[in-house]
Amino acid sequence: MKKIKIFDTTLRDGEQSPGCSMDLTEKIEMARQLELLGVDVIEAGFAIASPMDFKSVQTIAETVTGCKVASLARCTKGDIDAAWNAVKGAKYPRIHLFLATSDIHMEYKLKMTREQVVSAISEMVAYAKAFCDDIEFSAEDASRSEPSFLARCYSAAVAAGATTINVPDTVGYSTPQEMSELIAFLREHVAGIDEVDLSVHCHDDLGMAVANSLACVRAGATQVECTVNGIGERAGNASLEEVVMALKTRKDFYQAETSIHTGQIYKSCKLLSSITGVPIPPSKAVVGANAFAHESGIHQHGVIANAATYEIMNSSDVGIPQNSIVLGKHSGKHALREKLSSMGYELSDRELDDVFARFKDMADKKKHLTGSDLEALILDRRHAEASGCQLIGHVINAGDGVPNTSCVKLRRNGEELQEVAIGSGPLDASFKAINRMLGMEIQLDNFSLNAVTNGEDAIGEAVVKVSAENSAIYTGTGLSTDIIEASIRAYLNGVNKILEAAAQVPGKRGEHGNDDDTEDTGPPRGASRGAGGAADPGKAGPGFGKRHHFAGSNQRV
Ligand SMILES: [Zn+2]
Ligand 1: distance of its center to the CA of 320 in Å? Predict the structure, then answer.
């Protein structure tokens, strides 16, 4: 069995997907979960991109000890300095350098000749190597690069000290056959290839990211780059859970294994979904709500007789909680701890007290609690903790033909606030009351409501996208068996993020648009490209949260 390393880029490439930006607390929570999941490398961000990116890479580097922590960097000294300063506190730091090698990127984006590209790789890999032993080099747009030139670039990177070379299908253009042939070619033609890891990074523009990654494993790749739920630029990256479960389920075929604790997969996917407010599609492979559901009578009959008739994996292998009734209002704290532990959640005493209080509250409203209910309670925990403003209560007077009014009571910094407002509906009235209390003009950009558990007393999850003037767009989520309460909680959660960001830094980062980055490890958000002064992330100018458009990028490389 050969070992395949899992390089997770949920917090870097994944976070670049529209609607998936995360704040510092959320990134740390996700990084801790990735550590539990057992990934080999966490790409924590792109340190030079903004002070917030730098800070999150640095904090993750200092928090995570069970796996490597990488920062992305272009081939410039400023980028490498920032990357090293951000990851140097890690137990196992890695600097991940990239430079484009396809003719189209070299000519139009880099405006560099082949010779200049090769010497920049040698020089910058050697520069980074002086700081850090563990260096990964990615040839951006590798799959559209001329293979013999690509092999020359990788040989130069290995000679200068790279310990991993990565082959990105940056624009998601390649097919499994072509990727497989490219990997086989590189295994033959890159000098020193046997001494380093050969990695792949595939995008899903044509729906082939996972298939491409797996074809590369067959052809000799030893590391796969992927993201939880397959999030990432444009159509996303290869999905971690699909790559891992394909390797595990078809071990006979791939003759390869990973060190992922598959029982943590579902929990990781749900956590990310709860942070970003982007639900997991029902038919999503491995973790979708329907992935293990059997509707047809013939299938049901077969599964009852022997699960292997129609099931190639067990839902318990990926940690999906069983939806049978597990606890009720008379269950004690010990039973709750046991049950949560069996679902993969280990809580401290303080956390358990908090969850138990809300468990009792929910058990009063809902007779029987299932695994999904408990999961919802756990995922809601961070909202309670992160809150700057807490909801104390609300009264709604709503109907048709009468003014809809809402009275909302909050606690902020120990002080109780209360306000009444009239609106076009109960939610509009509630949101207006909150805005008035806080003296803020909050814009509601998006609102959705999903049932996260089953039955008529299901728990509803509200997801909002909110922004204030000159602020980024933030995702807020809230859970309750009462949809109005869930919505108010979601709104407050989003507003709290706006307040927190405003308190932390003078500027705020924007939700990443999907505009100019057609390439993989594209120009960083908000970094001043090509010009000097980008070396010190603390000095990136005002408004660093917005995407900047610079002509002639990477001129310094
Ligand atoms: Zn990418």
Answer: 28
